Amino acid sequence: MTRSLSELDRATEIWQNASKILKELVGDKAFRAWFSDLQPLGLMDDTLYLGAPNEFYIEWVEHHYLDKVKKAVELVSDDKVSVNFTLQEGEEIMTDKNNETPVSGDKFKKFRLLKHLTFNNFVVGPPNEFAYKSSLEVAKNPVRKFNPLYIYGPSGVGKTHLLHAIGNYIVVNSRTDYKILYLTAEEFLNKMINAIKTKTMIKFKAQIRDIDILLIDEIQFLNSKPMIQEEIFHTIDSLMRSNKQVIMAADRSPEEIDSLDDRIRTRMRSGLVAEIKPVDFELRKKYIKERIEKENILLREEHVDYIAYKPIKSIRDLEGIINALKAKQEFDNREITRHFLVDLLKTFNNDESIVEIDELLKVVSDVFNVPKELIVGKTRKAAVMRARHALVYVARVKLNVPYKKLGRALGGRDHSTIIHSFEQGKFLFYTDPEFKENINTVMDLLFGEK
Phi and psi dihedrals of 83, rounded to 5? Predict the structure, then answer.
């Protein structure tokens, strides 16, 4: 039987009863940390909707406790009721620290913007600085700068955050009452298909082309879908000819999206293309320090470095680590230990192939106290040679990097020179205790092992 979201009393009853079972399944501490803030929003189509404070909260609960939540709800509901977590939309006021204008939460909901994703809480570093500055410039000067703006990079590096930040900034700061819309390419397709089915395609086109600021995420979804490509091209073309702003995001560059209509590719390239690269050591460390300060997490500086050295490419994974640290501190009420970090980070770093030479070079440089420029340079000073041998040894033993690739990374050295360096590194590892200890430290910092 189909229910409506207005059935709040029924939803509240189910959640209250399920919470009692859930507390038994997960324990009091875990329940207080992860379930006390969930609010029943209602029932619709035999689905219990639970409101959560933010996206990361939802990801954590779904990843660690979803089966237990489903079981608890199933045990207390007469019918087969499924569970859906969604962001809890309040009526709170959002203000930008650079602007005093208050904005009702209704507007963000209407534009499909996540109001907690702003420029103010986007951590900036070398991998994302260009995309950040480009996005801020577009937010400050819609249409007049970089139209369209195309942002690309791997999953979890902040593309979606920047799209919402642009929209949120314009809502709060612009004197013009822009119509803004955020949606993914897949959502665009679903809306278009529904318009075709209901014979409201003309209305759909008019509504989309009436938007002043269009934010389209996950553009790579267009791959091998000619029908949606055709409609999106005409939408983008119509908006731009009407002097309206288009911002797009994808996990790859326009050239790397297979089977993409050349007209769309040309449009994407006609404005500004900004890449976000994987998160590096400096950005990881900056992000961790800002987040633990905000969450009042007590973490030693050496432990901050220990996390930052791990080759974690995704801000989303870093947020998961922060959530785990917060939960650990709340549960145990004591200092976070190195042993806990070792176990925790294994779940976020289980693929050694993601370690890149630049990351290895950073760690070797720090451990051996030799500047990176000297390691890849021509100098043959003893301390530099030891660091160079260490890099080659670890790259071969742990990462299986080809000799030729190592040669290119180390200033264009030839194949035989790299082989000799590896043999020297292996010899030192088994004969020189200090060298071996340094290698063990490099292994520990990168892989959590010695």
Answer: -125, 135
Query: Residue 138 contacts by C-beta under 8 Å, 6 or more apart in sequence?
Result: 145, 146, 147, 149, 166, 245, 247
Confidence band, pLDDT 50/70/90 cuts, at residue 96: very low
DSSP annotation string for 211-270: -SEEEEE-GGGGTT-HHHHHHHHHHHHHHHHTT-EEEEEESS-GGGSTT--HHHHHHHHT
Q: Could you tell me what percentage of the chain is helix, strand and coil, using 3-state DSSP and rounding each to the nearest 5?
A: 60, 10, 30
CB 272 within 8 A of CB 149: yes
Residues 102/130, Cβ–Cβ less than 8 Å: no
Please give the domain boundaries of the chain with CATH numbers for all domains. Answer: 8-87 (3.30.300.180), 105-275 (3.40.50.300), 281-347 (1.10.8), 353-447 (1.10.1750.10)
User: Angle at Cα 202 formed by Cα 198 and Cα 207, nearest 5°?
Assistant: 100
**For the whole model, what pTM was predicted?**
0.65
Which phi and psi angles does 124 have, rounded to 5°? Answer: -100, 140
Question: What are φ and ψ of residue 310, in 5° steps?
Answer: -65, 135
- Looking at the chain, how many residues does it have? 450
Amino acid at position 106, single letter: D
138, 247 Cβ separation under 8 angstroms: yes
Highest-scoring range by mean pLDDT, 173-177, 258-262, 385-389: 385-389
* Cβ-Cβ contacts under 8 Å for 260 (sequence gap 6 or more): 222, 223, 229, 254
Q: Which two tokens stand for residue 145?
A: 């700068």
Please report how the helices 226-241 and 201-209 are oriented relative to each other, as an axis angle in degrees rounded to 10: 40
Q: Which runs of E-coded beta strand occur in 68-201?
A: 82-87, 149-152, 180-184
Q: Please, are residues 38 and 51 in contact by the beta-carbon 8 Å criterion?
A: yes
